[in-house]
């Protein structure tokens, strides 16, 4: 009798981590630690959220709405203790392209639909499948996004003046920026360089300080006091409001839903990958374990709410989540507190945001892009193997030159084909099967001897490794080339961990060949599931005889030939 551990129920799978933390016992000391961690993360998120929104082609306040509304709900409902939700640099490319093509309303509708898709993925318990994204694909699209983010910030970093709208595609963007180089603004470049230098120096000297906020604040003070001729949030966007807007639906129509659906799928796919990667990072730092499907449902709710309140895409953010852990967070309350602190900052200090120079925010994103590009991992994968390098480069180049979705799809497909190729190469056939000579060139020399394992006209050979569709063609060709005409074929598949329907079809072909010769086929196969698969496809006595061990298969082969076996047959024939 087989005993299996009871699978967790629906309530356990989708229970927010906040409930778990509160039930474990949550005291005043925990609350104090979470408030400190939340304040620390909010200080980091304040300039970053505005910078990401601007780079995404929307106003800076939308980045704050995303961090406040989305960040609060991710922590309230999510399946990770330490996840911090908000706008992420990885979405800059997708959101900017969506805004350019569909407008802000169309982008908001795509975010709402992506939230519904994420909730569906979580409800169907598909969150665990996200881990099957190959590592070279993750590194490739992350590096590609970093390159695109850096290119998108060149205009503000250098203070360039473009005659028209900045192109979206990578190559036309570089050409337009190159043509605009004569308009370079030394004040903007100086502000950006000084901001980057201050961030780098402070991270080395005082890494525990809120480096990004200090650098942006210092740049704002210097630009205002020196009256530097640089663009600011106030000159380009007119400042930011003090409060959240009332929830409202974007325009909806059947045609618009169909138009935004590809963007919604891309948002959901990237959101699932980013949020679960971030949760895995938090687990690695804390020794905890997140609930993947609960996290995806929470991400879906957060995206819907963010779009209704004027925000953009929400996902788990790796850097802010790591900051939350390092700041001593005890649970999801820190993420909720981070959202509340951001709302207070916006209510109190919104007028001051008008003085922030855009080159300083561009410098912040340049640092983000540099950190996003996993340069060491990229180099290691290039040297690891030709297959990993092919997956990495195809994902990276397509992400940069075409779009992120195509890069992930092609990278995943390439990685899957590489996996099939490698798995097919693990199948080994032993037993010295006598083969028909292959076609060779004239005067190519004699063929090597083909050893064989035979006993009383019984040909025995052993397969080890995965026997599936990727390896089936090679095994089928081998069966067709068997030169011997034994009275019985015995296949030892006890070392085959995987057998699929294509492999069973190949075995059926061997059975058909044996029947024409008046021979029998016996199989040694211990896996009950594989034995059931054989039965399902009609491979049962007298067509094929199946035993659990090689000895049992030999006994059955001899019995089918009218020769009693040397050992008693204790296993019952499959029926």
From TrEMBL:
Residues spanning the membrane: 35-56, 63-84, 104-126, 133-154, 174-202, 209-228, 264-284, 296-319, 339-368, 459-479
Presence of the UniProt keyword Aminoacyl-tRNA synthetase in the record: no
Main localization of the protein described in the UniProt heading: membrane
Key words, A-Z: Membrane, Transmembrane, Transmembrane helix
PROSITE patterns: STAS
Membrane topology annotation: Multi-pass membrane protein
Localization, UniProt: Membrane
Protein name: Sodium-independent anion transporter
The species this protein was found in: Nitrospirillum viridazoti CBAmc
